[in-house]
């Protein structure tokens, strides 16, 4: 189970969410807002469950602050907002998942576990990607779970990294959005496949200098995406 940092200003909601997660085996540390130094909180927790409507510093800014200092730290947004604009804005700010209130503890527990599965580095064996693969100036170090562009480390979120690895596994293959969603977010995860577009936009901004002349990832309108790098 996980050490959960719950950032929620509504004390009744925080109490209910905390109780439900603790009953399922998690430890929960609650803070009412995202103001102040987050570093000590991140150091002793494994995942953030984050409300958007926080006083002082809203949830989007908290996401950006965490991503600036901890690019791979898991973030699950838990909010009453269900508009597409809020979902997209949260994912663009760096959230790994988006859950709309009200939600049962078991569903939130499943979402937390799914995010942790995606963000924790897999155990690498001699037969599973224990190597660095290079495509022109782009290198993917599977053992260290790091990506380099022209020898400079690229700061990718776990979702961006998993998306890149999935595409680069079969260069030239065309993946639909639904396929990528199942691979990156997990087959047991139900959500909006438009999250793929958001993750892809962020990923391409980091590894493709000119999106109009994509060096590594090509968008095939109406179908999906393919990796175009050459080893």
Characterization of the model:
- This protein has 231 residues and is α/β, with parallel strands linked by helices.
- It folds into two domains: 3-119, Rossmann fold (3-Layer(aba) Sandwich), CATH 3.40.50.2300; 132-227, Arc Repressor Mutant, subunit A (Orthogonal Bundle), CATH 1.10.10.10.
- The protein contains eight helices and twelve strands.
- It has a five-stranded parallel beta sheet, sandwiched between helices. It has a four-stranded antiparallel beta sheet with strand order 6-7-8-9, with no helix packed on it.
- Helix 1 (11-23) links the parallel strand 1 (3-7) and strand 2 (27-31).
- Helix 6 (158-168) packs across helix 8 and helix 7 packs across helix 8.
- It is elongated.
- 34% of the residues are buried.
- Keywords: DNA-binding, Phosphoprotein, Transcription, Transcription regulation, Two-component regulatory system.
- One of its GO terms (cellular component) is cytosol.
- Residues 3-116 form the Response regulatory domain.
- Residues 130-229 form the OmpR/PhoB-type domain.
- One of its GO terms (biological process) is regulation of DNA-templated transcription.
């Amino acid at each position: 189970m996980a050490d959960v940092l719950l950032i929620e200003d509504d004390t009744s909601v925080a109490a209910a969410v905390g109780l439900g997660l603790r009953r399922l085996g998690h430890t929960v540390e609650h803070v009412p807002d995202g103001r102040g130094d987050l570093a000590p909180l991140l150091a002793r927790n494994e995942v953030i469950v984050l409300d958007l409507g926080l006083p002082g510093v809203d949830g989007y800014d908290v996401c950006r602050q965490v991503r600036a200092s901890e690019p791979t730290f898991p973030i699950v947004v838990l909010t009453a907002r269900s508009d597409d604009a809020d979902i997209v804005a949260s994912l663009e700010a760096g959230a790994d998942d988006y859950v709309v209130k009200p939600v049962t503890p078991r569903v939130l527990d499943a979402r937390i576990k799914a995010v942790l599965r995606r963000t924790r580095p897999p155990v690498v064996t001699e037969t599973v990607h224990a190597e660095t693969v290079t495509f022109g100036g782009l290198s993917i170090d599977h053992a260290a779970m790091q990506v380099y562009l022209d020898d400079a480390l690229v700061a990718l979120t776990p979702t961006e990294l998993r998306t890149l690895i999935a595409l680069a596994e079969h260069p030239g293959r065309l993946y639909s959005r639904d396929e990528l969603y199942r691979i990156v977010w997990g087959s047991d995860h139900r959500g909006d496949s438009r999250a793929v577009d958001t993750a892809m936009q962020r990923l391409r901004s980091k590894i493709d200098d000119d999106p109009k002349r994509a060096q590594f990832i090509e968008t095939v309108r109406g179908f999906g995406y393919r990796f175009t790098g050459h080893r």
